[in-house]
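Recall that a protein's primary structure is simply its ordered list of amino acids. Everything else, from secondary elements to tertiary packing, is in principle encoded there. The following example makes that idea concrete.
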Amino acid sequence: MIKRKGKQVRPMFVFLTAKMLGEITPKTYDAATLVELLHTATLVHDDVVDDANERRGHFSVNALWKNKIAVLVGDYMLSKILLLSLEKNNPDLLEVVARSVKEMSEGELLQIEKAKLLDITEEIYFDVIRKKTASLIATCCESAALSVDRKDIRQTMKQFGEYVGIAFQIKDDIFDYGTPDKIGKPTGLDIRERKLTLPIIYTLNNSTPEVRKELINILKNKNDQSKSIQRAVELVNKWGGIKYSYEIMLEYAKKALNLIDNLPENEAKNSLKLLVNYTMNREN
């Protein structure tokens, strides 16, 4: 699982943030290791929760060795985070990472609860993604600041990471429906799992009662039918759900970049800006 490396975006946020604020230290490497281990552990656990058979183009741990082994592997990785933090005498990093684990778990539980009831509002949606996705990227940036002894700016960098993380998740949600100018072939995964993401929340709140009723019926009763999923995507696009989500995503990216606007210019800062833009424009 560890050898099958993903894009490793989160460690990149650690290194670029640290380099922007100072000189990379051994503690920066510790921080990058902790966040990537945590991310990998959550992926193993997520595959159990979602009953997913693939991860990064290969069979998932649970597909190969069943849920019991997968849960234990994820737990093992979390225990390594605890031990590495203690061995390297990084209690401040451990505090930041532990808070992230707590918030990610809360976000996942809240999303599962609301998926059953189909009563999620835009406010709850942002609470879910702030905890479930944005908290880890916030941890990357905050721990990077701590690693170069810049406690004075840790909260700013934490907020920066949170804004980027929210934009990152909205981008993921848009993938399920296409883009404002190109619907393409939607994956329909969120619809299949009855997840109310920003595109569909907006549509439910800004369409006619008839459209709202049809969408809810698809989510409740036809979320496993390809034709119905395509119909839901068409409705979300027609009523501006994708366009609205895209605009909100760009707003959060802009808010993030504004937070570092006054920091001294250097190569790492420019690269960090490019990384933020990449999260908005990536194709997968």
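Residues 61-87 form the longest helix (27 residues). The radius of gyration is 19 Å.
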